[in-house]
Amino acid sequence: MKPYKADLLLVIVTLCWGSSYLFMKMGLDSISEFNLIALRFGFAFILAGAIFYRRLLKMNLQTLKYSMLLGFILFVVFTAITFGLKTTTTSNMGFLISLTVIFVPLINTVVFKQRLERKLLVSILLAIVGISFLTLKFPFEITMGDLLCIFAAFSYAIHIIVAGFVTKKVDTLSLGITQLGFAALFGLIFSFIFETPAFPNSTESWIAILVLSIFCSGVGFILQIVAQKYTTPVRTGLIFTLEPVFAAILGVIFLQEVISSTGYIGAVLLLLSIVLSSVQIKRTTLRSRTTMS
């Protein structure tokens, strides 16, 4: 797969995730947090497993181990997000979760000593400014939900980096599907310990769970794993900053929300950051040659 096709898949993933906060709030109206995690990832795993069961039958032990690791990280990420939704706004959450774009290169630089290209550094700065224009509402106050969102962003940066490493070693489709199963399993275990597991009790909640399962979890996380084999973790994190743009667009379409003038500026800056990161900058070196005539 060519890198631009991988980037297109990641944009589709981001579009799916742009709707997730709305449907998570709908789902939490009738079921608890760990219960929601178990259901959304459980249904996604069952559906994807039924479609690609022949592929899963060929899965090796190494893929299973990596799937368990990625599934646990996903469980941690969405535990922080679902509990964070209780005490923060969706706009704050959109901004704070997008801090993944900072954490990915930061971890790569500190832990793996990887040097960040200048154009990517500029792209990240543009993305952060764009996200703040699009999502932040003042006065901005730090709540426990905000801290949980920051932790979720950091944890998801780890997921992106680990996925970027393990996708080079195993079958990405099997890895993407089975990580969903492990995330669901961890959610179910914690739901039995701290909650009373149950199915949604309203049509609205069922719709929310099915959308979260099929599109936000199934399509989203499987395509992410498949695409990450052909791109870098830093670029993946940068593309994911488009999530609040899609969330804002969906809010306008389905909830009749209004985007402010600063919001439009933020969206343009985010798109510009993605375009800049895609541009191949050719450096020409001038070599002085003395010729004698």
From TrEMBL:
Superkingdom in the source lineage: Bacteria
Membrane topology recorded in Swiss-Prot or TrEMBL: Multi-pass membrane protein
InterPro entries: Diverse_Substrate_Transporter, EamA_dom, EmrE-like
Cellular compartment(s): Cell membrane
Keyword terms, alphabetized: Cell membrane, Membrane, Transmembrane, Transmembrane helix
EamA domain mapped to chain residues: 6-135, 144-278
Membrane-spanning parts: 7-24, 36-54, 66-85, 91-112, 119-136, 142-166, 173-194, 206-226, 238-255, 261-279
Family: Belongs to the EamA transporter family.
Name recorded for this polypeptide: DMT family transporter
Source organism: Sporosarcina siberiensis
